[in-house]
Amino acid sequence: MPKSYFRCMFIITLIVGVSMFLVNKGVAESKDADSETQKSSEPECLSSVFTKSLHFTGEGMRYWYEEKGGFMDITGIPYDELDCKTCHVRSCDKCHARESGGRSYFSEHKTKSMNTCLPCHGREKLTFKFDGEKGHVDVHTGAGMVCADCHHNTDVHGDGKFRRSMRSPGAIQADCEKCHIDQCQPSPAFDTKIESHQVHNGKLDCAACHVSNTTACLNCHFGKFLETGKRPGNFIPIKKWTLLINHEGQVTSGSAMTLVHENKKFLAYVPYYTHSILSEGRKCDDCHMNKAVQTIMNGDTVNMLAYEDGEVKHWQGAVPVRPDDLYWEFFNKTEDGGWTPVPNDDDPQIQFAAFGKPLTDAQFNKLTMDFSK
Predict the structure, then answer these.
(1) What is the pLDDT of residues 245-283, one digit of tens each?
(2) Rounded distance, CA 229 to CA 357, Å?
(3) Which domain holds residue 212?
(4) Is 211 in contact with 274 (CB distance < 8 Å)?
(5) Which of 143, 150, 238, 309 could lock onto 174 through a cystine, CB 3.0 to 4.6 A?
(6) Pairing between strand 339-341 and 331-333?
(7) Residue 320's beta-bridge partner residues?
């Protein structure tokens, strides 16, 4: 072949090679910029839809901890320096790998087992423990359902979009209405003729009435956690009340988390779905004119967490989230493993996380309506 042919091919090859280098360099720089913005710990060799998921990033915990007004304001310790990342799902193996005969195999069946989910989702494990002790069975688990029956596809693997929280729009697709209204799967139909459904239509989320009680982990003693590296024994687990909190224009079930570090107090209110569901919702007077509402109407505070006669005491029942009307005691850990009140009267730093908001005066006034007669 003529020399001009080889010269031409050489020049084309060189141009293509340089072009690919510049494109790849630009992609890498763009990816690095995105990673810095998103604080993603995605390995350079791994890129997929899953690496943007909350299971992979754990971003929800980091974001609310580090945001202005979050608990890091008190600790001064960045999230990446804590051990909270031990549950992050870094690869498929965490949920799919099954060992047999000294070899690992990909297993879809493993993802159907709740024992795959509960080691990381400890609060739900604690919920089933509390309910089991009281003889109460969540209506869904009682029907033989497992986590993956509601949480599958994008709930687990993500959809390729980076999100700050599981409460961000589109992060979680599981929804009561997908089964109980549209009837995509066999389940009890949503009865629009039930009076409470008609009265509360669009104003209350299903969880506000159908979550039995909220599982909460109170008084996380952060200093002891840093000292021992252990969570068990360094907080007070309870399941005795449900907070009523606003989220996306509806009242839903909520929770609270109290923390202590170097005698500094922190309190976070959040919308929270405890997997402890009642087939029938609460009675009207479980919320309207209940003990908490009457206490607030009388000008007193609701003692959510108190210390009486040397013992830690908890409120019971549904409670509207109105921060000025709720009282939480804060404790230090004693040498013998007990609790003693923090020796100051300072108010806690309060955060509304996961896009939760307190009830309005108008919403509280509706709770003062008496339906007991």
Answers:
(1) 999 999 999 999 999 999 999 999 999 999 999 999 999
(2) 32
(3) 205-373
(4) yes
(5) 150
(6) antiparallel
(7) 244
